[in-house]
Specification:
The protein is of the alpha/beta class. It has helices at residues 2-21, 26-48, 108-111, 121-127, 144-156, 171-177, 197-200, 210-221, 224-228, 244-253, 257-272, 294-314, 322-325, 341-358; strands spanning 100-105, 132-135, 163-167, 276-280, 318-320, 333-334, 338-339. Strand 6 and strand 7 form a beta hairpin. It starts with a helix and ends in an 8-residue tail after the last helix.
C-alpha cells in the first residue's frame, strides 16, 4: 500500500507539473484533470477497503455478540469459518452417532490468535480424542457475558453442542479496571460500546465517489487509528487505568455477583439442552504481575477462579483447575496469560485426562 501511495503521489505531482510548466490546450488540461481524478478514485478504492467502515466481518452491531475477521490475522496461522469459529481442522461440526462436539467458551486463552493452529490448546485437545471435535467460538476481549450470548446464538442456530468448557476470564476483572468515574454497569456497556459508528456514518456509503468517501471519513473520525482500527470504535478505555486511584477504585467496586448470575444462567441453559458443563480456571504467568495495575488484575482474577471452584463444588460440576493443578514454567506462558506450545501441551494433557476419566463411556482416546 505504501508503494502504491508513493507511485500515486509521484504520478499526480508529475501531471500537475505538466499543467503548470508546459503550455497546454484546454482539452489537454481537461484530460490531465480527468486522469488525476480517475487515479484518485482507484487509489481511494484500495484505501477505503482498509478502513473499519468496509470490514463488514469484524463486528456485528451488538455489544455482546461479535465475530472477528480473517483480515486481522495471517491466514496461514488463523482461519475463521463462515459461521464464526476458529478452525482447527476441517471437521468443524460433526453430525453423526457417537461423535461429540466440545464447545469452548473463553477469551484469548482459548482463541490464541498469536499461535498457529497446531500449537493451540483447542488443536492439542482435539488430537487426544477419536470421537470428539472442538468448536472454538472464543475471542480475545470476551467477558463471560460475551461467551453466554455467543452460546445462545449458536444454540439458536442449531449447532450440535454436547460438552461446554467455560473458562474464567481476566476480562471480567478488566471491566472494573476501566470503570467510569467509579461506576460500573452490570451489562459492561461502560467499557464495551455497541458498534454504532456504522449507522452514524452510513450516509457516506451513499456517496458515489470513493475519494470523497475517504476524505469525509477521515474528517469525521479525526484520527488515522479510528479510521482503520475497529477496536477504536468498540472499547471505551479508561485513560487513567494505570493510576493508583483507578485500580484502587476497581478493588473497591469488584464483586462476583454478576459472575455468579452468569454461572447460574449457564448451568440452567446447559441442563435444558442436555449439555454437559465443565468449568476451567484461568492460568497466568505469575512473574508478569510484579507491579500495578497488573497486581490488581491478578488479585481480581484469583477471586474469579475461586468463585469457579466454589460453584463447581456446590453444583457437583467437573472442574479443570489450570491455576492450581499445573506447575507452569516461565517459557510456558508469555505476556501475562498468552500460552506457548509447551504450556498448551500441559493444559491439553490435564483437560484430556479429567474429561476422559469423567466421561469414559462417551469420549474415546485417540
Amino acid at each position: 500500500m505504501k508503494i502504491l501511495l508513493l507511485i500515486y503521489f509521484l504520478v499526480t505531482a508529475a501531471l500537475i507539473y505538466m499543467m503548470v510548466a508546459i503550455e497546454l490546450s484546454g482539452f489537454e488540461i481537461f484530460l490531465i484533470i480527468l486522469l488525476i481524478i480517475i487515479l484518485s478514485e482507484l487509489v481511494s478504492w484500495k484505501l477505503i477497503k482498509k478502513t473499519f467502515f468496509y470490514k463488514k466481518r469484524f463486528f456485528k452491531p451488538h455489544i455482546f455478540l461479535n465475530f472477528i475477521s480473517n483480515d486481522k490475522y495471517n491466514e496461514q496461522q488463523v482461519q475463521i469459518s463462515s459461521d464464526g469459529f476458529r478452525q482447527i481442522d476441517f471437521d468443524l461440526e460433526i453430525e453423526k452417532e457417537n461423535f461429540y462436539n466440545l464447545y469452548l467458551m473463553g477469551d484469548c486463552v482459548f482463541f490464541e490468535g498469536h499461535l498457529p493452529n497446531k500449537e493451540t490448546f483447542a488443536y492439542k485437545l482435539k488430537q487426544n480424542f477419536s470421537n470428539t471435535t472442538i468448536l472454538n467460538p472464543s475471542m480475545a476481549h470476551y467477558t463471560h457475558y460475551h461467551m453466554l450470548n455467543r452460546l445462545i446464538y449458536d444454540i439458536k442456530n442449531s449447532k450440535k453442542i454436547d460438552f461446554v468448557l467455560s473458562s474464567a476470564s481476566v476480562n471480567d476483572a478488566l471491566v472494573y479496571i476501566h470503570h467510569k468515574n467509579g461506576k460500573i454497569k452490570n451489562d459492561y456497556s461502560h467499557f464495551y460500546k455497541t458498534f454504532s459508528d456504522l449507522k452514524e456514518y452510513s450516509y457516506i456509503r451513499k456517496i458515489p465517489s470513493r475519494l470523497l468517501q475517504i476524505i469525509l471519513l477521515f474528517l469525521s473520525t479525526s484520527s488515522y487509528k479510528k479510521l482503520v482500527d475497529y477496536e477504536a470504535h468498540f472499547y471505551n478505555i479508561n485513560k487513567n487505568f494505570r493510576s493508583p486511584s483507578s485500580y484502587r477504585i476497581a478493588k473497591e467496586l469488584f464483586n462476583t455477583s454478576n459472575l455468579h448470575n452468569y454461572l447460574n444462567l449457564l448451568l440452567c441453559l446447559c441442563k435444558h439442552f442436555n449439555i454437559k458443563l465443565v468449568l476451567t480456571t484461568f492460568a497466568y504467568n505469575i512473574n508478569d504481575f510484579k507491579s500495578e495495575p497488573r497486581i490488581t488484575y491478578l488479585d481480581l482474577t484469583k477471586k474469579i477462579n475461586e468463585l469457579y471452584r466454589n460453584f463447581a463444588k456446590t453444583n457437583n460440576l467437573l472442574l479443570i483447575d489450570f491455576e492450581k493443578e499445573i506447575n507452569f514454567e516461565k517459557n510456558d506462558i508469555q505476556n501475562k496469560w498468552h500460552f506457548c506450545n509447551t504450556g498448551n501441551d500441559k493444559r491439553a494433557e490435564l483437560a484430556s485426562k479429567i474429561l476422559i476419566n469423567a466421561y469414559k463411556e462417551l469420549i474415546k482416546i485417540n
